[in-house]
Amino acid sequence: MLLALDISTTCIGYSTFDSEGTMMEMSYVKFNTKKNYWERLDAFMKAISHLEGVEHIAIEEPLQKFEGRKSNPQTIAKLNFFNGMISSAVYSKFRIEPVHLNVLTIRATAFPGLIKRGQDKSGKMLVWERVSQLEPHINWKYGPRSRKLVDENFDMADSYAVGLCMIVLLEQQMG
After folding, report:
1. CA distance 143 to 91
2. What is the residue range of 119's domain?
3. How far apart are CA 119 and CA 18, in angstroms?
């Protein structure tokens, strides 16, 4: 089994895939922002406690550079710290060293040609649309009043892309 993670300090999207590359589960753990990082770690580990037989772990690496309003030095430091906490915890649970993948590598490998310069839609929206096409049975979450996709959908879709990228990379290694 492959466990794929998209980690942020407010929500972790995760997906699991069987040895044939079929998605088995896609979900997320949304954190109460009043909880500290240790409590968030505990909540995540409880959410994945049912998983067994994990042979590969792939994680989207945290932000490495400043990108607009959402990335200042403190944010990048917090993301790196929390990503390290989660990485260490899943290593301890499964005894599998996680592979950290760059977001650009993930998108280019999982969905070649999907992201092009000058597009109107965000990369996250394009990834979500592609995952929706590949997995039409997923019941995505919408806001009760707004009827718009809630942000957790993008975390789940990103975790799927992480998993798909890892599957492609593993297949390439096998030759």
Report:
1. 34
2. 2-174
3. 33
